[in-house]
Backbone:
């Protein structure tokens, strides 16, 4: 029996529908089934009224309830709701006008109010629920404020009116109580389903984060293998120039590997702390390129998070600029060599300045057309990748200033 009732309540259900649409269709089916049940049950009034019982109107309302179920079955959901709204209000209006006011048929408007709540979709401005409410309100006030003698059955004796009063009170309470119970169960089930869905979503998200972290870890390991191979290649050649080029390529790969290494350990797998990344990169470059020289690293950073698609080009720019300063800026005997890294927020953009107090590079690096080295060309190309601008300056040494828009970044 329970399986049969569940099957009836799921008439017209489509798995592609949203939660609230599913709830509305299922609730409407249950309402129609309740109306059919109580119309059949209400036919027991014939025992008290005999020939005065309005059998034909009740039969029409019964057929309209079945029609509403059929429309849901045919996936005509809006028409099904409209049919329900019309016939339920007409039936209540008829009952209120047919029986004397003292019979208490107006009490059935209370369960009708609960139906409005149950059919409501709180996630959107549900025009159909609003229409349902307005139509119900109009029928209620018309029934209360106006009298239609042509419909009224004045032949019902006072004793039968009293019996109908008790009859209507009992069944309106039963209807209201049952619908309130349904409302409570729907809210409970909704909260239960939401909690289960949230648990499932969190579990799925955690699995994806673990998988994503593993991807970053594997990329880092693969890059470590590549840098290892490049180190073997550098050690196998006696050509100093070739060895230097291989080591530069190795450092570039390492700067990208460092991003994946930091993302693997970061709580947010989509962004890294740019200040920590740049600082770690600079320290590793200084330790690997000139470990015996006492070059001071002067750092000043703005707290900023960056997505991987911007962090890697910025890391490569830093790699080229710092490598160039370490290798070329300070002749032997230079007093107090210093490399300065400064990142600041100007209000409209982020500026990163990489400078040194070395010998400078004259006027030959103002554009890649004048200076054909790979490092300078790379800096210009990488700056374009982040939609930024780069300026080369000679101010008591070499300074490279990269600026880019902060619209898509997130400050920490």
Residues:
């Amino acid at each position: 029996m329970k399986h049969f009732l569940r099957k009836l309540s799921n008439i017209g259900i489509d798995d592609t529908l949203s939660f609230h649409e599913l709830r509305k269709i299922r609730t409407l089916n249950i309402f129609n089934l309740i109306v059919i049940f109580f119309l059949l049950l209400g036919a027991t009034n014939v025992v008290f009224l005999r020939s005065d019982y309005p059998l034909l109107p009740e039969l029409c309302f019964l057929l309209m309830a079945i029609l509403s179920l059929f429309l849901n079955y045919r996936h005509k959901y809006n028409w099904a709701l409209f049919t329900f709204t019309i016939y339920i209000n007409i039936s209540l209006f008829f009952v209120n006008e047919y029986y004397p006011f003292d019979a208490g048929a107006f009490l059935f408007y209370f369960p009708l109010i609960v139906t409005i709540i149950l059919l409501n979709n709180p996630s959107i401005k549900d025009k159909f629920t609003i229409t349902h409410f307005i139509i119900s309100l109009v029928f209620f006030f018309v029934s209360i404020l106006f009298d239609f003698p042509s419909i009224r059955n004045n032949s019902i004796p006072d004793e039968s009116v009293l019996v109908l009063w008790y009859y209507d009170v009992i069944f309106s309470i039963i209807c209201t109580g049952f619908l309130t119970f349904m409302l409570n169960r729907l809210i409970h089930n909704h909260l239960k389903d939401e909690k289960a869905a949230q648990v499932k979503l969190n579990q799925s998200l955690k699995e994806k984060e673990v998988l994503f972290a593993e991807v970053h870890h594997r990329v880092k390991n693969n890059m470590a293998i590549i840098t290892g191979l490049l180190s073997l290649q550098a050690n196998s050649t006696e050509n100093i120039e070739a060895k230097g080029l291989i080591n530069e390529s190795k450092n570039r790969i390492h700067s990208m590997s460092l991003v994946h290494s930091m993302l693997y350990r970061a709580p947010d797998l989509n962004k890294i702390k740019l200040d920590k990344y740049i600082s770690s990169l600079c320290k590793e470059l200084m330790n690997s390129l000139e470990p015996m020289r006492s070059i001071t690293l002067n750092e000043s950073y703005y707290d900023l998070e960056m997505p991987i698609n911007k962090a890697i080009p910025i890391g490569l720019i830093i790699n080229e600029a710092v490598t160039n300063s370490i290798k070329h800026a300070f002749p032997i005997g230079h007093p107090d060599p210093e490399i300065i890294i400064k990142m600041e927020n100007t209000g409209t953009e982020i500026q990163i300045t990489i400078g040194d107090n070395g010998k400078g590079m004259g006027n030959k690096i103002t554009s890649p057309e004048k200076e054909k080295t790979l490092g300078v060309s790379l800096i210009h190309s990488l700056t374009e990748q982040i939609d930024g601008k780069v300026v080369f300056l000679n101010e008591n040494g070499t300074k490279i200033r990269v600026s880019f828009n902060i619209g898509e970044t997130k400050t920490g």
